[in-house]
């Protein structure tokens, strides 16, 4: 598997999402549309949080985002359960923008390295496999984000 292709696909998927949400008015960022469980603000934080878990924690590396993000954006969370102010939209966009580069800098030439966390929901065994499941996860959420944007338009 070519590193350059995996990193390109990851960045392409991420940039498409960032581009689509970039024009969303601030008053719609935390709206939970009818028929959905979460807001677009949550979606962005969730992508950042899950990507961190899959890329860094599965590989046995230190988290590159605050631990508190799991409370807001981890699997099974929702904005209606938030008791504190979540990380700001603009901060999430900045972190989402830089995260792919951090992943590439960390894992270039290491896609065949075994994961430290052998028991993971993705059944991934290598860094490259983990990054592929992350791209799949992110693509799934891209579809949800697209649907939410249409409802909110």
TrEMBL record:
Domain DinB-like per the UniProt entry, residue ranges: 12-145
Record SUPFAM superfamilies: DinB/YfiT-like putative metalloenzymes
Coiled-coil regions listed: none
Residue spans crossing the bilayer: none
Protein name: DinB family protein
Organism: Paenibacillus chibensis
């Amino acid at each position: 598997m070519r590193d350059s292709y995996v990193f390109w696909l990851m960045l392409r998927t991420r940039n498409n999402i960032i581009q689509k949400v970039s024009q969303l008015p601030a008053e719609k960022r935390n709206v939970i549309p009818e028929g959905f469980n979460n807001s677009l603000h949550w979606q962005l934080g969730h992508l950042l949080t899950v990507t961190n878990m899959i890329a860094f924690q599965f590989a046995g590396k230190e988290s590159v985002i605050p631990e508190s993000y799991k409370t807001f954006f981890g699997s099974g969370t929702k904005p209606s359960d938030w008791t504190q102010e979540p990380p700001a939209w603009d901060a999430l966009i900045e972190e989402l923008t830089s995260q792919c580069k951090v992943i590439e800098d960390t894992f270039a030439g290491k896609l065949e390295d075994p994961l430290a966390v052998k028991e993971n929901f993705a059944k991934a065994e290598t860094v490259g496999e983990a990054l592929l499941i992350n791209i799949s996860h992110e693509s799934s959420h891209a579809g949800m984000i697209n649907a939410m944007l249409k409802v909110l338009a």
